[in-house]
Write a structure and sequence with these properties.
The protein is mainly β. It has a single domain, classed as Immunoglobulin-like. It is built from no helices and eight strands. The protein has a four-stranded antiparallel β-sheet, with no helix packed on it. A hairpin with a 2-residue loop joins strand 1 and strand 2. The two termini are 22 Å apart. The N terminus is likely disordered.
């Protein structure tokens, strides 16, 4: 799994309680010079101040990068625009050699405060 070595800065913006769930809002910032881990960026419930993640909402802003969260392996994957043009413009998974520059807003809904 990927780690945080010289990668993003994870900053908590705010948190709230919705019924029996916790909502934690985060900002993930990357500098654009470090590369994204090929296996994804490890993002556990504890990283987000929770005991368990029920849902994760990711707003990539205007970065042009798409992010998905793998709930089973607890990693965040980044997808960038294709490097070649053509009729099939498929997003390309960022690998260990892909620099990623983005400010990403994350809403983590889950249980318990860690």
């Amino acid at each position: 799994m990927g780690d945080y070595s010289a990668l993003p800065t994870l900053t908590q913006v705010t948190k709230a309680i919705f019924g029996n769930k916790r909502a934690h809002f985060w900002k993930l910032s990357t500098d654009g010079t470090s590369t994204w881990p090929a296996a994804g960026l490890t993002l556990t419930p504890a990283n987000l101040g929770l005991v368990a993640i029920d849902q994760l909402f990711i707003d990539p802003g205007i970065s042009g990068i798409m992010f998905t969260y793998d709930y089973t392996n607890q990693v965040l994957h980044a997808y960038t625009a294709p490097t070649t043009s053509g009729p099939t413009h498929v997003m390309v998974k960022a690998t260990g050699s892909t620099p990623v520059a983005a400010v990403v807003n994350i809403l983590a809904l889950g249980y318990g405060v860690n």
